[in-house]
Amino acid sequence: MKIVKNLAAALIVAAALIVSAAFAQPDDGVDREPEIVQISATRYQVGAIEIDTAERRLEISGRVLRREPPLEYFAVTLGGSKGYESLLELDATAFEFNLACILIGLDAAESELPQFQFDPGPVVGPRVEVTARWDVDGDTITAPAASLLTQGGVVVDDDAWAYTGSLVLPDGRYFAHAAGTLIGFVHDPASIIEHVNGLGIGAYGSLGGNADLMPAEGTPITLAVQVVPETPAPAGPTPVK
User: Fold this and answer.
1) How many angstroms from the chain centroid is the CA of residue 157?
2) For residue 182, what are the domain limits?
């Protein structure tokens, strides 16, 4: 890892490493400790993930994995075991993806994980926008995550996503890494980002890719995660003196 010279940047990196250390496992070529490279005062790289701490945004390369139902995940890790039911595959491990989320200011302490897979209750956590970008015939297409999905043949319009951070299992394994899941929508506690209200819960097989918008399987894409700023509470009435 490169030594950072900027004190503020160093503190950001150190804080992220402290949190990610809880997920460290023996290095076998896959369970590797994420490496942070500083590019500029506010820009970092973790593996294939580019991070802008000022914009609170990350971008990562990947590809369209499948479009046919049933889908339960929007994105999985490279070679993730849940790839058979995921729209996208990203060029990252769960450790790298979560560390990148931490670096853009997402905090699992503000989240409440689903109690179980297919938990019908809403997910609580810092809100994020998830978008995908790809090229078609020289044009660049950018679309919000929900628009790439259909439920029962209808394009999904609920585009609310939240950071949950996944969790460490009793045996010490990081759940997102063990499952290979990054972004889901069936309220899986393993996912690092989940759809707030859930999609397809109680209707297995109803979720698929939006073939009218999605490029073909294998098409390279860039996925972006942007922190949604909190809306300030409305000011109360001015006290009467």
Assistant:
1) 19
2) 7-227
d(C-alpha 134, C-alpha 132), whole Å:
7
Q: Is residue 232 part of a domain?
A: no
HSE of 239, CA atoms in CB hemisphere, 13 A? 1
- Residue 9 corresponds to which tokens in the numbers above? 């940047």
**CA 1 → CA 10, 46, 53, distances in Å?**
12, 10, 18
Look up residue 200 and give its amino acid.
G
- Residue whose tokens read 């299992």: 169
39-93: pLDDT as tens digits: 999 999 999 999 999 999 999 999 999 999 999 999 999 988 999 999 999 999 9
pLDDT tier for residue 8 given thresholds of 50, 70 and 90: very low
pLDDT in tens, 213-233: 999 999 999 999 999 998 655
What pLDDT shows up at residue 123?
96
User: Residue 240: inside a domain, yes or no?
Assistant: no
Place of tokens 């339960």: 72
For the chain, the domain total comes to 1
Any residues with CB less than 8 A from the CB of 170 and at least 6 apart, and which?
none
Buried/exposed code over 204-226 (b: 16+ C-beta within 10 A; e: otherwise): eebbbbbeeebbeeeeebbbbbb
